[in-house]
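Protein in question kept underneath.
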Amino acid sequence: MTAVTGVTGESGTGRAPGAAGGMVWLVARREVTSRIRERAFLVSTGITLLIVLAVVLVPRLVGSGHASFRVALAGTGRNPIGPALAAAGRPAGVGVHTRTYPDAAAARAAVRTGDADAALLNGDTVVSDGDLDGDLAAVLDRAHQAVATRQRLRDRGISPTAVAQALDVPPLRQVTLAGDADHSARRGVALVGVIILFGQLIGYGNWVAFGVVEEKSSRVVELLLAAVRPWQLLAGKILGIGALALGQLVLISGVGLAAAVGGGSVRLSLVTLGIVGQVFAWFVLGYAFYSSAYAAAASRVSRQEELNNVTGPMTLVLMVSYFIAIYAAQHPTGVLARVASLVPPFSAMTMPTRTAVGRADGWQVGLAIGLMVVATVLLVRLSGRIYANTILRTGARVRLSEALRAREPAVT
């Protein structure tokens, strides 16, 4: 093995802090300009936008049409059941369209030919061709009870006006413990935010890992380290790819939020914008943590085929964090959600979920951010050490204990 000297020791020494920052900036700009033109980046951006639009718009389009049924009525006179059916179906989002036929036989024939979903005969008999839809059955039953109740009250001498006033009962008023009427919408925004966060963190964490191995296997890293120090190369790579990731996140969030607001799924407010801002902030923290871990792990191998073995633990942690965050959206006050929202790195996805649904206090958010910053700083230092000690070592995978002990990298 031939030692490569002057890389981790002399290269870059004696330079002013501004010069060191300039080298980091150059590496970051190289990452941005080279990768933003890659087809993989453009395709992934387009696919992600389509997925977000599908998640936001498809349920709205599919569910926008209320259930609608056709009911045949028998008789020639005015039938009070028609307005009662419309009133009974309105709260449940069920539309009922009635059509009057001359007699019961004609109404039955309409059901048999498919012109009607059901026929109401003699005010108390429902005819259907097969099993009656549950929503329609409930509406028919409520309407029948309302009409029958009015008729019985009138038969007992109560005036129609008094009957109408007695039966005009307002619907139940819904109040959520979260204290606002947009609780469901906020939970929906939180879930979409978690999905996007998970995709961005795992996608760009692996992108950092692939870039490290690609440069190492092609020996390009040897040329780069002749001009910059390992920590500058690592920092520039993470910052450059992170800038692309953040830009893509802004684009995806902007398009998704615009579609949700335009479709009426979400009401644009300071609360909604605050949730989106939290997703951005936690992405920065989560990306700094995971990308450093992915880069350090990738520097221990020299072939793409070995990458999954060393990055598997980070991917597993991300998967666990994702499922905990989904759970926290439904049970934000559970013990698991409260603990995970404070413990790094699970807090990167769990805490924004809890704050979005209004279940996290200010001191909890501050503590979670502080712990995540401390954990990220410690991991960045550790990852930088591993990266510097292993980036020039090719051949077999470097064991973690050896990567932490190594002082001078070597190349076979």
In short: Confidence is low (pLDDT under 50) at residues 1-17, 175-179, 408-412.
